[in-house]
């Protein structure tokens, strides 16, 4: 079914394709409309008392990267679980494919893990989708595996009786590629936006309640990297600024490259608890996290001065960019 919210959406971001448009936030722009529908999303499985999401599924066996499995639901609704082995940094595409799946089948797709020493896959949800595939089938176009281990791919369905589906997993970048080549000159990053973790969203929401005249925004953007080496901070920042909502920052004549301690110092005090949570949640602990700051100021009238900073935070081995925007205004 067509869900009311997509969990992720794509932007193709060459700057040359952008039209002229006004700046945010005084004339906010969207980077692409979310697809809407009249029916509800297929929800993730309910977390059982054990804390192991696998206990809310019917385990069906292994799924390999580069392989596919067939599923034959016999209940309404239900969840089938498939184990998948992956190394840290592997970038995967998961899909319930048109080929091999019954017409009008409605699915949801979820990725959990990795399995811990006790044998539990836990409840950490790394990716999910409702209807990004063909018709009402599901597709996660890009997810980066954070740690080496066994993951659980879950297919949910609400009208699966007497139907079948085909689930496939493909390597699209990162450490699962056997022989990646260097990035071509002028390579442009394509971002997929995913929700923040509940912990990070709570930390942000709490900080935003401290002062009426200071508000911050945080977005998580994943990018596909099918090359050797690492994406650069210049590439990451260019792809962020290519989005219409950030057009006002393009006029900064001297953006700054900051260290993490400098970023911490630049954050308003109520927002500083965000930084360690960002690093713990999305970093691998060994990569060199890089930061670039863009600044703008404008006035909306008497006592209407605004000061805004945009921080592009690159996690080059985790294939993620966090966009942190810090704003303040006169009151």
From TrEMBL:
Keywords linked to the UniProt accession: Signal
Gene3D superfamilies with a match to the protein in the record: 2.60.120.380
The organism's place on the tree of life at top rank: Bacteria
Species in which this protein is naturally found: Myxococcus llanfairpwllgwyngyllgogerychwyrndrobwllllantysiliogogogochensis
Signal peptide span: 1-27
Protein name (record): Lipoprotein
Lineage summary: Bacteria, Pseudomonadati, Myxococcota, Myxococcia, Myxococcales
């Amino acid at each position: 079914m067509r869900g009311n919210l997509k969990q992720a959406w794509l932007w193709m971001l060459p700057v040359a394709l952008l039209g002229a448009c006004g700046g945010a936030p005084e004339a906010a722009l969207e980077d692409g409309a979310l697809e809407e529908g009249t029916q509800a999303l297929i929800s993730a499985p309910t977390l059982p008392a054990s804390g192991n999401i696998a206990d809310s599924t019917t385990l069906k066996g292994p799924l390999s990267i580069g392989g596919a499995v067939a599923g034959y639901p016999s209940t309404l609704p239900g969840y089938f679980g498939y184990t998948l082995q992956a190394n840290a940094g592997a970038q995967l595409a998961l899909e319930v494919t048109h080929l091999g799946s019954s017409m009008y089948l409605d699915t949801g797709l979820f990725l959990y893990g990795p399995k811990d020493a006790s044998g539990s896959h836990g409840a950490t949800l790394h990716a999910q989708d409702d209807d990004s595939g063909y018709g009402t089938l599901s597709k996660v176009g890009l997810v980066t595996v954070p740690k080496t281990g066994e993951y659980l791919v879950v297919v949910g369905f609400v009208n699966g009786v007497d139907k079948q589906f085909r689930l496939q997993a493909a390597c699209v970048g990162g450490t699962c590629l056997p022989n990646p080549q260097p990035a071509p000159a002028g390579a442009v990053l394509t971002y997929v936006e995913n929700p923040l973790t509940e912990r990070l969203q709570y930390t942000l929401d709490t900080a935003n309640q401290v002062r009426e005249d200071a508000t911050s925004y945080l977005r998580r953007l994943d990018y596909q990297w099918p090359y050797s080496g690492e994406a650069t901070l210049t590439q990451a920042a260019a792809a962020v600024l290519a989005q219409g909502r950030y057009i006002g920052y393009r006029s900064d004549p001297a953006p700054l490259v900051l260290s993490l301690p400098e970023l911490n110092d630049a954050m308003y005090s109520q927002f500083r608890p965000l930084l360690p949570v960002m690093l713990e949640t999305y970093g691998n602990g060994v990569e060199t996290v890089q930061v670039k700051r863009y600044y703008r100021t404008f006035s909306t009238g008497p006592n209407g001065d605004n000061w805004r900073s945009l921080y592009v935070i690159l996690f080059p081995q985790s294939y993620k960019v966090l966009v942190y925007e810090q704003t303040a205004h006169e009151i």
